[in-house]
Amino acid sequence: LPGLHVFAIAFALEVSVGKTNTVMALNNSNVLLPCTFTTCIGFQDLIFTWYFNSTEMVGGSLIYRGKIKSKASEPFLVGRNPRVEFVGSTTGKDNNISIVLKNVEFSDAGKYTCHVKNPKEKYMEHNATIFLTVVQKMVEADNTVTLIIVGIVGGLIGLLILFMLVKRVVLFIIKKTQDGK
């Protein structure tokens, strides 16, 4: 029975950055770094932190730290990088603690970790990581071959419909001429 209790606590707090953990941004643009958390028993004085190139202060840098008193209150800022803006909300359905990194530079490429600590769950901690790639320009896929194939297939279908229509008209004319004799 004690093992079951540990199992329940281990899955009480969960942090997610969405379906994909890779984000691509254009140089000098703003980029959203998504993060949400779920908790089974609620939260009180929850602390969330964003780190760059680390899961904690050692070896990396703190870029945003916030605190949430309760489900009824919005997060408040404890500390942040001036280029980071909080865009989440925790009073609605989702516990969204996403941030926007403004004027992205090539040096901003790397690993961003969203870390959550919940005192209500015996200071349970969990984190999720997202990787940011910064590019000079977005490259569009060349779809010329696709357009050619779609054009050919569409043309063949059109010719088939035209052939069936001509056949139907010819058969109708033949039937009418035979009925007249």
List the helices and strands and how they pair.
Layout: H1 2-10, E1 13-16, E2 22-26, E3 31-33, E4 36-39, E5 46-52, E6 61-68, E7 76-80, E8 84-86, E9 99-101, E10 110-118, E11 124-135, H2 144-180
Parallel strand pairs: 2-11
Antiparallel strand pairs: 1-4, 3-9, 5-6, 5-10, 6-7, 8-9, 10-11
Structure description:
25% of the residues lie in helices and 35% in strands. It is α+β, with helices and mostly antiparallel strands and 181 residues long. The protein has two domains: 122 residues, Immunoglobulins (Immunoglobulin-like); 37 residues. It is found in: Membrane. Keywords: Disulfide bond, Glycoprotein, Immunoglobulin domain, Membrane, Signal, Transmembrane, Transmembrane helix. GO terms for molecular function: sodium channel regulator activity; transmembrane transporter binding. This is SCN4B protein.
Overall mean pLDDT stands at 84
CATH topology of the largest domain: Immunoglobulin-like
The coarse overall form would be elongated
What percent of the residues sit in helical stretches (DSSP H or I)?
25-40%
- What is the total number of structural domains? 2
What structural category characterises the helix and strand content?
Answer: alpha+beta
Instruction: Give the uncertain stretches in residue-range form.
Output: 1-10
CATH class of the largest domain: Mainly Beta
Characterize the largest beta sheet: strand count, sense, and whether it forms a barrel.
6 strands, mixed
User: Roughly how many Å apart are the termini?
Assistant: 97 Å
Radius of gyration, whole Å: 29 Å
Question: What is the N-to-C succession of helices and strands?
Answer: HEEEEEEEEEEEH
Protein name: SCN4B protein
GO molecular function, one term: sodium channel regulator activity
Domain Ig-like: 2-131
Main location: membrane
